[in-house]
């Protein structure tokens, strides 16, 4: 089971704390724009890359609107990971998005 956080609360939390933000959109979407300090594992690759994750950490999972992050949270929760789904996705992000070629993917 996972929990949810609304975008405004998540934004404030991300400004105040060091969070592990997992973006599950496709790499091409992530390359265009992303939440600052996020890392990318596309939803389709997640089942093959859970070894890159730590069961002791909490992952704030985000996508464009919330559909893929829901699927990712369900999958990760079933495999013992602590997740928080960010409602609304990056399309609701109130701050500036990163838009450079300097990005992190865990693949």
The rounded Rg comes to: 12 Å
Summarize model confidence as the mean pLDDT: 92
End-to-end Cα distance: 25 Å
The helicity comes to 25-40%
- As laid out across the biggest beta sheet, the strand order is 1-5-4-2-3
Task: Give a verbal description of the structure.
This protein has a five-stranded parallel beta sheet with strand order 1-5-4-2-3. The longest helix has 12 residues, at 67-78. It has helices spanning 7-16, 27-32, 67-78; strands spanning 3-5, 20-23, 38-40, 58-62, 82-86. The chain is of the alpha/beta class and 107 residues long. It starts with a strand and ends in a 21-residue tail after the last strand. Strand 4 (58-62), helix 3 (67-78) and strand 5 form a beta-alpha-beta unit. It is 26% helix and 19% strand. The protein contains three helices and five strands, in the order βαβαββαβ.
What brief labels describe this structure?
alpha/beta, 3 helices, 107 residues
Summarize the structure.
This protein is α/β, with parallel strands linked by helices and 107 residues long.
């Amino acid at each position: 089971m996972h929990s949810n956080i609304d975008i405004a609360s998540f934004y404030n939390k991300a400004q105040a704390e060091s969070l592990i933000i997992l973006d599950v959109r496709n790499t091409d979407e992530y390359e265009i724009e992303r939440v600052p300090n996020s890392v990318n594992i596309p939803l389709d690759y997640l089942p093959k890359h859970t070894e890159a994750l730590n069961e002791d950490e909490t992952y704030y999972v985000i996508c464009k609107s919330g559909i893929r992050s829901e699927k990712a949270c369900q999958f990760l929760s079933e495999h013992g990971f602590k997740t928080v789904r960010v409602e609304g996705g990056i399309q609701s992000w109130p701050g500036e998005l990163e838009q450079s070629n300097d990005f992190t993917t865990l693949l």
